[in-house]
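Every protein is a chain of amino acids, and every chain bends into a shape of its own. The fold becomes a row of whole numbers, each drawn from a learned catalogue of backbone shapes. The protein below has been through that process, and both of its lines are reproduced in full.
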Amino acid sequence: MKIYTKKGDQGKTHLIGRRVAKNHLRVEAYGTVDELNSFIGKAVVSLTEQAGKDVREELTEIQQQLFDLGADLANVTENPEYKTKDAYTEILEKAIDTYWAEAPEIKTFVLPGGSQAAADLHVCRTVARRAERNIIAAMEEEDIPSEILKYVNRLSDYLFAAARVVNFREGHKDVLYRSSGDVFK
């Protein structure tokens, strides 16, 4: 089997249910989710032992969930059965609460960085925010379940909390944004 089909050479691709332009809003959305998944893979390999097995396992599970979410974004069939569930978001929220309690308290924005893994997680966070914007744009034109948007929104929060806890566990202090007012109260 060859990896190339030559069917995309005219700027079209397949969603599950119809053929669309490669710059279709759904394609933009799931393409950004795919990019996010790749950056998460990069973050996983940069994690040290001190960062914790829990973060590595969660990120690997998130990668699986992002494939589900991408498939959901690509599905335009009538009455599709979506894979992205509220349970995914609930798991993220529990991890966020755990990491937020473990890392030192902050009240201001922090500069992205610290350890390599934390810096990678901050990149993931910003790509998740872009994916969120792409999903919102697609939702304005298409019927997309709200669970997808909710998950990606919470995922960016998770990535922020994970970056902070990784820095803490690896002995790196967050660098506070000096011109920030109190944002975390």
Remarks:
- Strands lie at 12-14, 19-21, 110-111, 175-176.
- The domain at 18-172 is CATH 1.20.1200.10 (Hypothetical Protein Ta1238; Chain: A;).
- Residues 65 and 124 are 15 Å apart (CA to CA).
